[in-house]
Amino acid sequence: MGAGIAGLRAAIALAEAGKVLVLAKQELTESATQYAQGGIAVALSDEDEISLHLQDTINAGDGLVNVEAAHVLVEEGPERIQELIDWGTQFDRKGTKLTFTREAAHSRDRILHAHGDSTGREIGRALYAKASSLKNISFSEFEFTAKLCLDSGRVTGVELISSGGEIHTVSSGAVLLATGGAGHVYSNTTNPAVATADGVAMAYRAGAEISDMEFVQFHPTALYVKGAPRFLLSEALRGEGAVLRNSELHRFMAKYHEAGELAPRDVVARAIAHELEVCRLKEPVVYLDLTHLKANHIRERFPRIYETCLKYNVDLTVDQVPIRPAAHYLMGGIRTDLNGRSNLHGLYAAGEAACTGVHGANRLASNSLLEGLVFGARAAGTMVKEAKHAHHASMPDAEPVRNPGAKNDVQAFIEGIQQLMWNKVGIVRSRQSLTEAIQQLQASEEELPPQTSRRNCEGRNIHTTALLIARSALARQESRGAHYRTDYPEHEDSRFKKHSIVGEKGVRFV
Ligand SMILES: Cc1cc2nc3c(=O)[nH]c(=O)nc-3n(C[C@H](O)[C@H](O)[C@H](O)COP(=O)(O)OP(=O)(O)OC[C@H]3O[C@@H](n4cnc5c(N)ncnc54)[C@H](O)[C@@H]3O)c2cc1C
Asked: What Å distances lie between residue 164 and 144, 167, 396, 454, CA to CA?
């Protein structure tokens, strides 16, 4: 499930062993992968070392990184990138040498990029070209997966829901959930519309363990212009020297962190949230300022960002760019081991939908594309070995599940949850805000839309995931990484230097 970096990379490895069906709920090109701008981190430059990439990843994760997973990421990363190059990915170069840039919390220049700021699109293009050249792989777009099918505790396939609401099933030796992130659980997000946490929600309902859901990364700098999507303004802009200014046009980051604009994302996001709170304007705003940088360089280095902003009448080279934070990346997800296995037989996960613990409490910038590549390939290798022993169950066609008492205004239902999550389970949280959110989410269970359309299924998935995030955030009585609580502003290592697993009966820490 999924045609982003994790799903495509896995499909290529799976094709060696048998037939592979890659499903995407919209166009194959509509995924977070396609929008990744800044780049992909890998220790390949002459001045870099794998051990330094490891250390930066561990530091960013704020005490919670699964060190074994991080080893796998940084050690297997170079080989996976070389493969991408062999398959035709055109990373930017100076002459024949690859060019690396730096992002926040990286101690070396190690971010490869393509066409300036279109890295994900270029990687997706090359992976799709490679995958579609393999005869064992077929693709099906606009195919919405609604549910996992289980037989004696083993995942044996999926239920798909057509645009007309009919449900049909596909059986398979193994299922990989590479369904991406959860940005649309929040009212402000950089994520594309497909990011409604479908994989996490359906895995949870099937009995899979879901881990570290309280850790949602909020990107500090998303364009904030009325009528425009919350378009991401990459960290690499600050890496190249862009600075932040408050509504009075004063720089403020030095007050919050010694690294100023290059402080970790969560620090920058909270600093901006604070500046917005104290701002006296009716429509509080903060600005990203690039006007002191060379205009030609900005246009060449960030062509896609430059053009997109221009569409909304903002010229990066002369204007102060209005920005606000937005939900960006889910560190948590379906709990997997280093080989992509969930706790359910036959179910695997990779990419943003999965939680290997590699990002801990906070993801190091540009590590997520690499994670999709490395763990997508590993999950596929395990599926090949284990699917040999699986039996293909024949499944009866499923009956649509209905909820006759429910209201049918799914858009209003979804927007209500998104606003609630932004206000109460957002950048800054407390016992009171989290308890209120959980109560409201539980009360709205009665209004869950019936499972009769794709959008209704998304509404249910957003609701399920919102509850998983809020419950996990309430249980973690400390602040760590991207999870910040005003009532517990410090680390509490003795109780919480652990991963959370959220279930029906509560949250446990392991
Ligand atoms: C604007 C933006 C910029 C980013 N920049 C960077 C960056 O520079 N570097 C970096 O490392 N990371 C970046 N990230 C994060 C990174 O892009 C993602 O974490 C990564 O691409 C996720 O890949 P994935 O394969 O797990 O999922 P995705 O690429 O999101 O793909 C998900 C796939 O699952 C499918 N799907 C979902 N639900 C269903 C369903 N119910 N049925 C069928 N199919 C379904 C979708 O159709 C899609 O094909 C960025 C993210 C965003 C949003």
From this structure: 11, 9, 19, 9
Rg of the chain, C-alpha, whole Å: 22
Closest ligand 1 atom to 39 CA: 8
Instruction: Take residue 103 and report the two structure tokens written for it.
Output: 């992002």
Q: What is the whole-number distance in angstroms between the Cα of residue 324 and the centre of ligand 1?
A: 21
- Asked if residue 333 lies in contact with residue 197, where contact means CB atoms within 8 angstroms, the answer is no
Hey, what are 8's tokens? Answer: 């495509």
Cβ-based burial of 228 (10 A; exposed 0-12, middle 13-18, buried ≥19)? middle
Helix (H, G, I), strand (E, B) or coil at 329: strand
pTM over 0.90: yes
Whether 508 is a known active-site residue: answer no
Of the CA atoms within 13 Å of residue 363, those in its CB half-sphere come to 25
Q: How many residues does the chain have?
A: 510
Within 13 A of 52's CA, how many CA atoms are on the CB side?
Answer: 15
Give ligand 1 pocket residues (Cβ under 6 A). 1-7, 23-26, 30-33, 35-40, 119-120, 143-145, 178-181, 190-191, 194, 198, 232, 329, 351-353, 366-369, 372
For residue 92, give every residue at least 6 positions away whose Cβ sits within 8 Å of its Cβ, in sequence order, or none.
98, 99, 112, 113, 114, 115, 116
The residues facing 288 across adjacent strands are 244, 321
Task: Show pLDDT as tens, one digit a residue, over the chain (510 residues).
Answer: 999 999 999 999 999 999 999 999 999 999 999 999 889 999 999 999 999 999 999 999 999 999 999 999 999 999 999 999 999 999 999 999 999 988 878 899 999 999 988 999 999 999 999 999 999 999 999 999 999 999 999 999 999 998 888 899 999 999 999 999 999 999 999 999 999 999 999 999 999 999 999 999 999 999 999 889 899 998 889 988 999 999 999 999 999 999 999 888 889 999 999 999 898 888 889 999 999 999 999 999 899 999 999 999 999 999 999 999 999 999 999 999 999 999 999 999 999 999 999 999 999 989 999 999 999 999 999 999 997 666 555 444 444 555 444 556 999 999 999 999 999 999 999 999 999 999 999 999 999 999 889 999 999 999 999 999 999 999 999 999 999 999 999 999 999 999 999 988 899 999
Q: Which atom of ligand 1 is nearest to the CA of 33?
A: 21
Residue whose CA lies nearest to ligand 1 atom number 41: 145
**How is residue 488 written in tokens?**
């517990």
| Catalytically annotated residue among 9, 110, 265, 378 | 265
Pairing of strands 333-335, 347-349: unpaired
Helix (H, G, I), strand (E, B) or coil at 159: strand
Q: Is 308 helix (H, G, I), strand (E, B) or coil?
A: helix
Distance 460 CA to ligand 1 centre (A): 20
Which of 195, 163, 184 lies closest to 453, judged by CA?
Answer: 163
> How big is the CA angle at 249 (ends 248 and 251), to the nearest 5 degrees?
115
